[in-house]
Write a structure and sequence with these properties.
Length: 323
């Protein structure tokens, strides 16, 4: 599995003898608004929003150098001769005497507010690089409904067409997730498709297949059996999604995650693979064991499922549609 990071997708490295005490102060400042770790070997590191990690000055990754009075000259010399690279900020004592490289942000040891804002801006910038793609899940067998749920009509067109157009208003690209044997289905013609490419089945397989096809994207996932989803529902989800949580999604009346009305960060792919390796295929169970940001839906009815002919009839009546 290729990763563009060493320990955590939102990692910030600090180097220097005074780095560890500063990291601990920053973690205390960020808590409880964010879950932050300072341990790079933490087995649960993916369940933190971001990581502040101590590394040697020689690490080539971008880093913040924490200077003390005794090492200013030595560090600056190492920077000048190219031994220490990718310094994106300095933390210094008031007694510093030597000139620092121009254009590099510099903070005093006691300027925790300024440094905390800089760190947050740094990880926010990383998080914002992932484009938002849309995924309409239509790969289920629809056995209880007796016909393909994506082909049903609630809004004057097939449900898959309705959801595709709705998600396309908010997403850079939008796709329909379906099985290979659905490719030629009439209600899917003309819609960009991502076919299940993993041996597992179910909605989690569709999400993983999309992540494998476009690993750089965040995914706004919506199931085709949610016929009451509308602009307000999507706007609430997009606006309130946590920038660092692996998954942000609506919860039902019992407070349980609704995995098929959620936004998945690209880093969740590694967690998904781990769940599959352990034989876990239930998306809700996955979210209950991940860094999930629950979003209370202002209109819980929007999460009403239509899984049977009776559900279909009831929802048509609810929205005032007659067959």
């Amino acid at each position: 599995m290729n990763k563009s990071y060493l320990y955590h997708p939102f990692e910030v490295f600090f180097a220097g003898p005074a780095a560890r005490p500063l990291i601990e102060k920053l973690i205390s400042k960020f808590t409880p608004q964010y879950k932050v770790t300072g341990l790079k070997r933490d087995p649960q590191i993916s369940d933190y929003h971001f990581a502040l990690l101590e590394e040697p000055q020689s690490i080539t990754a971008p880093k913040i150098i924490v200077l003390d009075d005794d090492e200013q000259g030595e560090i600056l010399k190492l920077i000048q001769d190219g031994t220490v690279v990718n310094v994106h900020a300095f933390v210094v004592s008031p007694k510093i005497k030597l000139p620092l490289p121009a254009g590099v942000p510099t903070f005093a040891h006691d300027d925790l507010d300024g440094l905390a804002k800089y760190v947050l801006d740094f990880v926010f910038e990383k998080a914002s690089k992932a484009p938002l793609f849309g995924l309409v899940l239509v790969g289920g067998k629809s056995s209880r409904m007796g016909q393909d749920k994506g082909a049903l009509s609630y809004h004057g067109e097939t449900q898959v067409q309705f959801l595709y157009k709705l998600l396309a208003k908010y997403c850079t690209k939008t796709f329909v997730s379906c099985r290979n044997d659905q490719e030629q289905s009439s209600h899917l013609q003309g819609l960009p498709q991502i076919h299940d490419s993993v041996t597992s089945t179910g909605p989690a397989a569709g999400i993983l297949s999309a992540m494998m096809a476009y690993p750089e994207a965040r995914w706004l996932v919506m199931a085709c059996d949610l016929p009451l989803v509308d602009d307000q529902h999507l706007q609430h989800l997009i606006t309130n999604a946590h920038p660092f949580a692996l998954v942000s999604g609506h919860v039902d009346a019992q407070g349980l995650p609704e995995p098929l009305s959620a936004i998945y960060r690209p880093e969740f792919k590694h967690k998904l693979l781990h769940f599959f390796e352990r034989g876990i295929k239930c998306p809700r169970k996955m979210l209950l064991n991940s860094l999930f940001q629950p979003l209370a839906n202002p209109n819980i009815d929007k999460l009403t499922n239509a899984n049977t002919p009776e559900d279909y009839t009831n929802i048509l009546q609810k929205i005032g549609v007659t067959l």
